[in-house]
Amino acid sequence: WLPWTISETRRQGPKRFVKVEGGGNAGNALTCAARLGLKPKLISKVADDSHGFAILKELEADGVDTSFIVVSKGGSSTFSYVLVDNQTKTRTSIYTPGDPPMMPDDLSQSTLLSAFDGARLVYFDGMFPETALFVAQEAARNNIPILVEAESLREGLDELLKLADFVTCSAKFPQAWTQAPSIPSALVSMLLRLPNINFVVVTLGEGGCLMLERSANEDSDIEERDVESFLEFLYKGKDDSLAIPTCIPSAVTKFRANGIGTICGRFYIGTAEKIPDSELIDTTGAGDAFIGAIMYAICANMVPEKMLPLAAQVAAAKCRALGARTGLPRRTDPHVVSFLH
């Protein structure tokens, strides 16, 4: 389901600023990807109410193909109310789910095959696991790479992750899912447990991101390092004086996580843009913007050293405006144009 979102920010006492726009992880991420130059198709569901029609109109205006969105006769579209505190920069979301929910019966195989025509990547935000798994299985049968967002532990997410080629996750997810003692060891565990995954990225807010990419090179001469001490060493190369996003790559290494195992790959530290406090308006949807840029980068065959700074810069641009979509940059935006080449 795609939510219709009201974002409200309060500054200087009782004065409020209100923005009404479309929302939802997938809707936001695909809007971002469309503004960067992709031609995304969205499989989702809305009701035939005023919110539903407004959601469709906004997506279409941004270049998102809505022809595969199911419109329910009756029911209600998902709705969220997001309160943004301008002083603390924190958010509170009041979520009202849509009804009836999207089910596999809403989609025929011919509809999916039509949606997959020309597709280079399929992205799942982890919602509605039964339907998501149905679509993912069909995508896998058609050899279309799959990107899965792992925001939190959810029913059915394990089965979806098994089909993934790429994973992006929140800061808390890797350890919650693997029970590993740290994020670096958790990423090693994820790649060992999910052998189809090419890379996993964990977002760390203003701390940037951390990425582990699998390497096919299993040369016996490759040095083996303890993952914890190695990441401590790699982080020492981070230049905290730089305001713009950067990427610090490692060489191909065998990373050992005690009690978990060893994986051959490369770590990448991605830094975030340092946004002046006066310019930081709202972090709602920053993760969705990051994922939208990751989708663009995968489809453009970008190397991680370019992908991670682009995603960080796009997320930072979003944070300079109220709501999840207002600040999403277009590919001609001076904030991001240099990161696209």
TrEMBL record:
Keywords: Kinase, Transferase. Residues 19-215, 273-329 form the Carbohydrate kinase PfkB domain. One of its GO terms (molecular function) is kinase activity. InterPro entries: Carboh/pur_kinase_PfkB_CS (IPR002173), Ketohexokinase-related (IPR052562), PfkB_dom (IPR011611), Ribokinase-like (IPR029056). Pfam families: PfkB. It comes from the Eukaryota. This is Carbohydrate kinase PfkB domain-containing protein. It comes from Glycine max (Soybean). The lineage of its organism: Eukaryota, Viridiplantae, Streptophyta, Embryophyta, Tracheophyta.
